[in-house]
Amino acid sequence: MRMKNTPIRVIRMADHIRFVLNDQPVELDGLSPMTTLLDWLREHRGLRGTKEGCAEGDCGACTVVLERADGHREAMNSCIALLGQIDGQAVRTVEGLQGPGGAPHAVQAAMAESDATQCGFCTPGFVMSAYAFAAGGERADLDTIHDALAGNLCRCTGYRPIVAAMTRVAGLAVEPAPQLPTRTGSASFDDCFHAPRSLAELVALRARHSEALLLAGATDLGLLASRSRKPPAAVIHVAHVPELTAVSETDKQVTIGAAATYAQAMPALTSNYPGLKTYLARLGSRQIRTMGTLGGNIGTASPIGDMPPVLIALESRLKLTSTRGAREILLEDFFLDYRKTALVADEVIESITIPKLWQGEAFFCDKLSKRRDQDISTVAAGYRLRIKSGRIDDARIAFGGMAATPKRAIAVETALKKDGFAAAIAAVETEFKPIDDWRGSAAYRLQAAKNLLRRLELRVTSPGQAVEVEAL
Length: 472
Known about the structure:
The protein is of the alpha+beta class. It contains 18 helices and 20 strands. The strands form five sheets. Strands 2-1-5-3-4 form a five-stranded mixed beta sheet. A five-stranded antiparallel beta sheet has the order 10-11-16-12-13. Helix 3 (106-113) runs antiparallel to helix 6 and helix 17 (421-431) runs antiparallel to helix 18 (442-461). It is globular and about 70 Å long.
């Protein structure tokens, strides 16, 4: 936590950043678009209820609410959001919550009356997560409340009174969303933050500025500005390109735009692949899923990214687009080496297409991490199986955290189809040579992967047996 103000670079912009804050229009000129929303709120707007605790989107002290044009309210981390991303949006902070006649808002009253605060540092973040939850009309069951609170940490009060307050405000009526500022064309802030509004503009910008980083939700790149204090020199923000934010499906496949957020993609993913429901609930928090994207998770090419092994197992393919046209590539062929991909300098990931499961197919996935919530995987796995007469007729299996890239386990698949699970488990050691790091040793990862295959065997052969920790 910083104890003094952080200098913010003052510059000139070609366009002005415009958004709505607590129902009031804001237009900014002279601030870098790479400034974090949190820094601007605290150091320029004087709204210090929103706090910094971790500077990486983990603790929730910086939580504010994004108010969508369709009326949805979504909690988000202001510490890793850049001002350029907020152009055209509406944001509400804890200072923007009020009840009738200036009284405390119902969420604030519920927190106070439930004794749900102690030192108070984290309380504004909890209040804003509770406000987003209340506005969503969700049921007040414990699983949903815990999911809504997974992105907020409290060190002193304990969560029982906070959960009690959340129960009281479930389904609370909220006012209509504010009208958002309109921007019909592309924008460029300081000639370093480019925000195209069409695919043609995006690929043209990519061709001209191949050195610029592609920015979707900033749940990864935002850390350069927040934690490292070294924001990128130039970015191309892809979140306003319709082709990249679309989610569609046919009777054979689901297509997710590379810049569609997890929150937008989850209904299609969980309805078609039920095994993803618990898995996605552990991918970051609601604050992260408000901004994070499948395309970003793939594009960073981390060997421990949560989604690549799952998508490889599902035989997903990418659409890569440039001014030269579009091409498709299997996701398993996209990762070349550690943090190296097949993406050419002038290309962007436009979409991810995932085949639907056929009759007789089953899909499972697993994630092991040091913390259950809010943690990157140590080992992740996805399995797509075709089962006939109790026997594995076909299989696609992929692991993350077991090699320099997310990797399909072809030798494991072959052994499983030919000789069963015992042979597949034995094949793990010949196929993978993981590294030691602070998340887990190579020996741990090998044993964990074997154990996950043993769990998979129990899922297939004894479907009524509880094999998940949550079910015990």
